[in-house]
Amino acid sequence: MSTFTPTTWTGTKASAQNPKLKVFPNAPFYLLHHPFSWELVEVGEGDWEWLPTFGQLFEIAGVNGVEDTPNGPDSTMSRMRLMDNGQTVIDREFGYIARYETTYGGYYYCMRWDVPKVIGSKVFWNNDKDGYNDWRRELVGLGIIDKPEIEVIQSKIALLDRKIDRRLKLQHIPEIKKEIDGLYALKKQMRESFEAMHKPKTKSKSKSKGA
C-alpha cells in the first residue's frame, strides 16, 4: 500500500515527494464559479448551508479558447472572457490544486481534497468533504465569491416545485407521500439557509461590571 500526502500546487511551488501514481497525466486547471452555481449541503445533523460549486477550465491549447504559445498553453484570454461573462475565476493561490507525478510521465492534477491511496495496482480516492466545505465557506467569507442573490435560490426552489408537482397525483401512495414530504422539508430548508446566510451578524453586548 502506498500513502500520499496532499500538497497544494499553485503553478510555481514544487510539490512534496510522493510515490508515482499509476494514472494517466492530465492538464492543470482553474476553478470557475458562476453566480447560479450553488448547492445546499448538510454540514451537520439537521444543519444545512448554501455553498458554491465550480466548473473547471483545463489549460489545454485549442480548447475553450486556451492559446498555444512557445511557453506552453496560455489561458489568460480565455479567463478574461469568462470573467466578462460573469464568472469568477479562482486564483490558484487559494490552494485548491494538488498534483502527483505519474508512472506514465507528466503529472496528474486534482483537487487538494481528493487523496489517492494505492493498494496493489489499484488506485482508490478518498475525499475530505469537511475540509472542502470549510474551504468553500472561507471563499464566501473572504468575499472572493459573493453570496447568492435571492433570484438564484428562487430558481432552484422553482425546480423543486416542479418535481413536487409531478408527484402530487400519486401522493396517495405512502412511498411517494414520504418523498413529497421530504421535498417540502428541503424547500423550507432552502429558504431558511438563505435567510441565515444573509442575516446581519450582531455584536454581543458585554455587561459592565459594577464599581
How many whole angstroms does the radius of gyration measure? 22 Å
List unreliable stretches of 5+ residues: none
The computed structural class is alpha+beta
Biggest β-sheet strands, sense, barrel: 3 strands, antiparallel
Shape: globular
List how many beta strands DSSP finds: 12
The portion of residues assigned to helices is 25-40%
Order of helices and strands: EEEEEEEHEEEEEHHH
Mean pLDDT, as a whole number?
Answer: 90
Distance between the termini: 67 Å
Structure description:
The protein is 31% helix and 26% strand. The protein has 211 residues and is of the alpha+beta class. Helix 3 (150-168) runs antiparallel to helix 4. It starts with a strand and ends in a 13-residue tail after the last helix.
Question: Key terms for this structure?
Answer:
single chain; 211 residues; alpha+beta; 3-stranded antiparallel beta sheet; 12 strands; globular
Can I get a quick summary?
The chain has helices at residues 76-84, 129-141, 150-168, 174-198; strands at 2-3, 29-33, 38-44, 47-52, 55-58, 67-69, 72-74, 88-90, 97-101, 107-111, 114-119, 122-127. It has 211 residues and is of the alpha+beta class.
List the helices and strands and how they pair.
Elements: E1 2-3, E2 29-33, E3 38-44, E4 47-52, E5 55-58, E6 67-69, E7 72-74, H1 76-84, E8 88-90, E9 97-101, E10 107-111, E11 114-119, E12 122-127, H2 129-141, H3 150-168, H4 174-198
Antiparallel strand pairs: 1-11, 2-5, 2-8, 3-4, 6-7, 9-10, 11-12
